[in-house]
Every structure is written in C-alpha cells, then in structure tokens.
Design goal:
The protein has about 250 residues and is mainly β. The protein contains two helices and 18 strands. The strands form three sheets. Strands 3, 4, 5, 7, 10, 13, 16, 17 and 18 form a nine-stranded mixed sheet that branches. A seven-stranded mixed sheet has the order 2-1-6-9-12-14-15, with no helix packed on it. A two-stranded parallel ribbon has the order 8-11. Strand 14 (about 155-165) and strand 15 (about 165-175) form a beta hairpin.
C-alpha cells in the first residue's frame, strides 16, 4: 500500500520552574510551531502538517512525553482531513506518557472524513502516579455541505488510558455507514458530530458541575461516565464541530 510515513516526537521537562521543550523531532509532513507560553509556567505546542490532508496508505506515528512537573497543551492548525481512498486505509498511532505532577491537555483539531475514506487510529496514554490528563477528540460526519453526511467507508479508533500502570479506560470504535444506520437510535440519533472529553488526575471537574453545564446546552445530547481512579468521561453528540469545540472549552474552563 503506497503512502507517506511521518513521525513526531515531543518531550518536555521543567527548568527553572517553567516548562521547556526537552526534545522535538519530526519528519514530513509534520511541522511544529514555536511553543507559546501559558499561565502557570506551561507551554502550548501547535502541530501542523505540510500536507493538505491524509491519503490512502499514509502512516503516522506520534509520541508525547511530558516530564515530571511540566505542563503541555497540544493543539493543531486545522481540521484533520481524510481524503477519499480505495480499498486501503490510512493510520495513526499515538503514544503519550505523563510523569508525576505533570499535566497534558491533548486538544487536536476535529477529524473530517471525506466520502470513501478509511482510517484507523490507535492511542495509548500512560499517566503515572500524580499526573493529570485532559483528552479531547471530535469526529465530524463528513463534508455535510457537499452531501457527504456519513459517506466515509470506515472509521476505527482505539483508545487505552492507564493510571499508575492500571487500565482505567479502554474504548474501541468502528463506524461503517454501509453496515450501520448511524443516524438511527443507538448510534447518532439524528446528530452528526461527536466529542469525547476525558479528565483524569488533578484536572477532573466535579460531576455536579459537568451535569449542570451539560443540562443547560440546547440541541446536544451528552452523558458522563465515571471510571477507575476518579476519571470522568464525557460523550457529547451535536450538530457541528464548532459547537462541540466551544462546549468542550467551557467544560475545561
């Protein structure tokens, strides 16, 4: 299967009470902007791509290591576009390690699957004792303005999160519009976009606050799940990626 391969590795550490990049390595199509300072001594890293989107056969590998006491926020430049593919697929494997007293806010841009795209993503997060994580993932139905609502061929995503060596969250998602009535009850139930927001460690908001904020949102459906080690998973269905980004930002504030 033809396609390109890209590698990204970002490591942070704490120096003089501030977070700095200890190492940053990437190969095309990845690019990384100069870190932006954040309050509390942390940094924000924007991951960019020289490619217009993800093509059949593309394979990407990402590694994020947040050293003890450091604080890192990871964002992206624009939507992750998955172009139309043949019988093959594209894939991304992401590994994250969060050391003691470190904080990772992983907030990539929404994924936009074009009609006929096939994609597989695998993410493994190792949060060590005392570490904190905020993980967000937003999936669009496709290019709705071009009539491509749930026209992608297949979307797979696997997420595993450990805390102090103990698995606290394990999810496996497979969406295949040709086999599943994604607009029906039990799936998206008339909505077109979904967001996953997971809190673990010192970053976990109270369940009461989450429920109160979610109940006040119009034209969206959401639920909260408690996990081991005090984690909280929020799943939201909405009408647009922008709507879900704004709601997630409010829940994280």
């Amino acid at each position: 299967m033809n396609g390109s391969s890209g590698t990204l590795c970002v490591r942070t550490c704490l120096r003089g009470g501030k977070t700095v990049l200890d190492d940053c390595f990437f190969t095309p199509p990845y690019k990384v902007a100069h870190p932006f300072p954040e309050s509390g001594g942390g940094i924000r890293v924007m991951v960019m791509s020289a490619s217009a989107g993800t093509l059949e056969g593309d394979r990407y590998a990402e590694t994020f290591f947040v050293g003890e006491g450091s604080r890192l926020t990871v964002t992206g430049q624009s939507y992750t576009k998955l172009f139309k593919m043949g019988q093959g697929h594209a894939e991304r494997r992401t590994r994250m390690t969060i050391e003691r007293d470190a904080v990772l806010r992983y907030l990539p841009p929404p994924v936009l699957p074009f009609g006929g795209s096939r994609y597989r993503a695998e993410t493994v997060v190792d949060v060590q004792q005392g570490g904190s994580l905020i993980y967000r993932d937003i999936l669009s139905c496709g290019r709705a303005g071009m009539g491509e609502v749930f026209r992608f061929a297949e979307y797979r995503a696997a997420l595993t999160i450990y805390y102090a060596g103990r698995p606290v969250l394990r999810e496996r998602m497979r969406l295949c519009p040709a086999e599943q009535p994604l607009s029906a009850i039990g799936y998206y139930e008339g909505y077109t976009h979904q967001a996953t927001l997971f809190f673990l460690g010192g970053a976990v908001p109270s369940a009461e606050r989450l429920y109160t904020m979610l109940e006040s949102v119009a034209d969206a459906a959401a639920g909260v799940t408690e996990t081991l080690e005090g984690g909280r998973l929020v799943r939201i269905l909405g009408r647009s990626a922008g709507q879900l980004e704004q709601l997630c930002d409010a829940l994280m504030s």
